[in-house]
UniProtKB/TrEMBL annotation, chains A, B:
InterPro entries: aa-tRNA-synth_II/BPL/LPL. It comes from Piscinibacter gummiphilus. This is Uncharacterized protein. It comes from the Bacteria. NCBIfam families: PRK07080.1 (NF005479).
Length: 310, 310
């Protein structure tokens, strides 16, 4: 029985999550705090993935939510997803300019015009900040495998709890030869499907359909689909007809290797591929499929996530 | 023996951390990725604090790095620390405006002026986003104890590795009566000292000296010192003469209760106090005191942090 009287199924699920105190609203669409219970599902999912991947000897790197603006502008995000960007601005004046800022603020004028762009943007993807750190390097024969987790930001206010403006991605990135990159992507489509199915999420791989911006974006969308480079594992969360991508497996060819001058052992431009788990979306899928009370989740799922151990 | 030839002791320590691959530079001062080893020290420190506090039955809440702009403007950060703020801006135009944005970008003009402020700011403190979620509420007799951890942003580019622009705070916040808030702060000064001393960090409590902005800020600084509301636990990291605050214990009186209308059980305006652990700074203090090779840390410290268990 639902008391929220909301016809929109996305808002309806959001209301349920808020009523169960799993998500705590911030007053901004798509920005929430999470409860300890919600967070523990993510921690245990990450531990599960970590146990599966420990044998792969990935290098662990953790990037903060902000990202060098100079590196951002070397990518094509400004062309393809300008509407999703997060540019960080601050006040850089002295006392006199501060008085003027306060005056504008108190008069209800637009005080933010007085701010200046800082050296950073919010990271739009967990792996973007990685490639510049490998700039000018030559990879070992085996390539590199990097384990990342960070917050990403996408400015797309929405009532769909699975479309947050700020969320975390756990990513495994392969830098290496074209064969190594492709094998990484394809191997992970299977491996990630297995992990998610073991949690009762019957994911299906589909070719990705990214929200490229504007008129030019329609060409990009068609190209992306033709190239079959990026797959997503989707599962229904709120809607059976429009299942939600909870992971993405993307081969970038030599895009990042070329922009940031990363070479393979034999001197070719490095290729890259990434496998990204959308952590909040995975938790939201689990709560939708197994119910809002973690104690009542199927024993097999509780065991896989070691929810009884803590 | 040091090969970095850097006279600045802050840069020198930074160079050592980078050479040891504990921190990975981003090209922006004060923005780093952390290695798995660095991160594990933080994870285990958080586990240690968590074991100490489990009996207190704190509510766990985890906020993202961004914060409702409307709530931000109800605080006095804009007055006191405008130079540290992070205001998140994005592109909100259509195709025509996008073409102009790209033209400016490609011509080397200031494309960021075409962006608009979003609904969010970067959070300047881990506990700021908490108070609005309690707005309009009446606390139970015992008050509330909340366990927070989040990224905060402060725009203060620096070569001191302990002055990052983006870092994580683990905070314990008490909402309650004046007595409950003060007891929280005072109890935590002792408790946090004990935890940090058990790790070989001989911290000392000092009255805080926050970097209030500009001419008006000098008055605020004097007031802060007179009121004795905020203490920091300091320990030398790079400099013996200028030890670094690695935790802060702050009583806010009824400031947040008043701004966000939070009441105690008997109808008074709630008081609040917070205890914040600067997680990156604590790791940096441990690496400075015990060396860059975690395997060689004193057995007692390794045992306290359960570094052998993993």
């Amino acid at each position: 029985m639902c008391l929220c009287h909301d016809d929109d199924p996305y808002k309806h699920y959001q209301n349920e999550l808020v009523a169960a105190r799993l998500l705590i609203p911030s007053g901004v669409r798509g920005v929430f705090a999470r409860s300890g219970t919600f967070e523990n599902v993510i921690v245990q999912f990450e531990n599960l993935v970590g146990r599966e991947t420990r044998a792969m000897n990935a290098e662990v790197l953790r990037f903060p939510p902000v990202f060098n603006r100079a590196h951002y502008t070397r990518l094509d995000h400004l062309y393809n997803f300008p509407d999703l960007m997060g540019s960080v601005h601050s006040f850089m004046g002295k006392d006199a300019e501060h008085l003027e800022l306060i005056r504008k603020f108190e008069a209800g004028e637009k005080w933010t015009d007085d701010l200046q762009p800082t050296e950073v943007m919010l990271a739009p993807a967990a792996c973007y900040p990685l490639y510049p750190t490998a700039s000018g390097s030559t990879l070992p024969d085996t390539g590199r495998l990097i384990d990342l987790q960070s917050y990403v930001f996408r400015h797309e206010p929405s009532d769909d709890p699975a479309r947050m403006q700020t969320f975390r991605m756990r990513e495994f990135v392969r830098l290496g030869t074209p064969e190594q990159a492709l094998a990484h992507r394809d191997g992970w489509i299977d491996r990630a499907s297995g992990i998610l199915r073991s949690l009762g999420l019957d994911v299906v791989p589909v070719v990705a359909n990214d929200p490229f911006f504007g008129r030019g974006g329609r060409v990009m969308k068609a190209t992306q689909r033709e190239q079959n480079l990026k797959y997503e594992l989707v599962v229904p969360i709120v809607s059976e007809e429009k299942p939600t991508a909870i992971t993405s497996c993307n081969c970038h060819l030599d895009h990042f290797g070329s922009v940031f001058d990363i070479k393979t052992a034999n001197g070719e431009v490095a290729h890259s591929a990434c496998m990204g788990f959308g952590l909040e979306r995975i938790a939201l899928a689990l709560f939708k499929h197994h119910g809002l009370d973690v104690a009542k989740w199927p024993a097999s799922v509780r065991q896989q996530l070691q929810l009884d151990a803590a």
